[in-house]
């Protein structure tokens, strides 16, 4: 993906390089002080199964991006990086990734980019950057206390308290996918049991629907019978009135609400923001989740509480990374 920069005018230091590093691709762009993405670029990072370290790939692609758009590093105010994994925010290092990405643990993002470009660099976990992006110019822009949940292959999130992202002592705070909602539940990749992610991620929903069809065998009917099971096809089946799939989705929504209710009782936010592709399903997902959460939150916590979908989509991480950079320059 490429979007060329507007070459009009003179570059000034209120423009920043935002980088969002995921497990399959890196997105980067020039972001101004109002959160506008002036140009963008995307490149794969898993093209050789991480034999080439992600850091090496991103450094190379950042140079390609800047050169193609004739952007000189000294015209930028700094580099904000959003990165997957457990990020030591103070030192800008990938402290862990659960062993899921080869040659990623220990990557020194902050020093590598600071050395290459001679600019200030900040590095924050990608889910926290999503929360920061939504806080800056997205769905949470007028809220001071917010919990952002991103539902995808895994489950991430960020917690904003009194306008500040909650990072904890090392930057690992907000790991909402790994508190237990079923103490005797499913084993998790983190070696605990019953983690929120094991029940509330899109992976969990796809697994439950796939198991349903496997158990039903040739007796199964419905839209998903002869097509890949994914979020889109699952909600298409719900919209068409498939009772079996609807029941599974309703159970999934209930599990998500259990985790959210617990978070509401701990942090007392004014807003819950739900991100990920499924957040586009207002009637079949967001409205049902909102109802379930409000039903089980204690009355005093319910006052002034809202739940709504995120607005920024896959731009949020890049925008949030720059917002954190600006806050900490």
Side by side, the strands of the main sheet go 1-4-3-2-5-8
Q: How many strand units?
A: 13
H/E series: EEEEHEEEHEHEEEHHHHEHHEH
What is the residue-mean pLDDT, rounded to a whole number?
Answer: 91
Structural class: alpha/beta
Task: Name the poorly predicted regions.
Answer: 8-12
How many helices in DSSP terms?
10
Give descriptors for this structure.
329 residues; alpha/beta; six-stranded mixed sheet
Quick description:
This protein is of the alpha/beta class and 329 residues long.
Provide structural commentary:
Helices cover 37% and strands 20% of the residues. The protein contains 10 helices and 13 strands. It has helices at 54-68, 109-117, 126-137, 197-200, 202-216, 231-239, 243-267, 282-296, 299-302, 316-328; strands spanning 2-3, 15-21, 25-32, 37-44, 79-83, 86-88, 93-96, 121-125, 146-151, 155-161, 164-165, 271-275, 306-309. It has a 6-stranded mixed sheet with strand order 1-4-3-2-5-8, with helices on both faces. Strands 11-10-9-12-13 form a 5-stranded mixed sheet, with helices on both faces. Helix 5 packs antiparallel against helix 7 (243-267), helix 6 packs across helix 7 and helix 7 packs across helix 8. The longest helix is centred in the C-terminal third of the chain and has 25 residues, at 243-267. The two termini are 29 Å apart. The relative contact order is 0.14. Mean pLDDT is 91; it is low at 8-12.
């Amino acid at each position: 993906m490429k979007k060329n920069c507007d070459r009009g005018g003179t570059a000034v230091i209120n423009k920043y390089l935002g980088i969002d590093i995921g497990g399959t691709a890196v997105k980067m762009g020039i972001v101004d002080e109002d959160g506008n993405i002036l140009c963008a670029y995307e490149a794969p990072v898993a093209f050789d199964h991480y034999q080439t370290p992600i850091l090496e790939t991103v450094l190379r692609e950042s140079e390609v991006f800047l050169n193609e758009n004739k952007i000189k590093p000294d015209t930028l105010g700094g580099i904000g990086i959003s990165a997957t994994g457990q990020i030591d925010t103070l030192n800008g290092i990938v402290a862990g990734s659960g062993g899921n990405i080869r040659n990623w643990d220990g990557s020194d993002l902050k020093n590598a980019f600071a050395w290459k470009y001679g600019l200030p660099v900040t590095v924050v976990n990608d889910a926290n950057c999503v929360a920061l992006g939504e806080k800056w110019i997205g769905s949470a822009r007028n809220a001071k206390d917010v919990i952002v949940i991103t539902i995808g292959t895994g489950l991430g999130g960020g917690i904003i308290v009194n306008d500040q992202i909650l990072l904890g002592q090392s930057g690992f705070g907000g790991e909402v996918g790994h508190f237990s909602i079923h103490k005797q539940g499913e084993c998790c990749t983190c070696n605990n049991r019953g983690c929120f992610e094991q029940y509330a991620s899109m992976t969990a929903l796809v697994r439950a629907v796939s198991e349903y069809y496997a158990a039903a065998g040739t007796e199964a009917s419905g839209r998903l019978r002869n097509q890949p099971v994914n979020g889109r096809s699952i909600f298409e089946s719900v919209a068409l009135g498939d009772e079996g799939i609807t029941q599974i989705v309703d159970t999934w929504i209930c599990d998500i609400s259990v985790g959210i209710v617990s978070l509401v009782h701990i942090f007392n936010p004014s807003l819950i923001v739900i991100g990920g592709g499924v957040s586009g399903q207002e009637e079949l997902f967001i409205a049902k989740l909102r109802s379930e959460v409000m039903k089980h939150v204690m009355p005093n916590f319910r006052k002034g509480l809202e739940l709504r979908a995120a607005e920024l989509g896959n731009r949020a991480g890049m925008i949030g990374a720059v917002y954190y950079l600006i806050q900490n320059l």
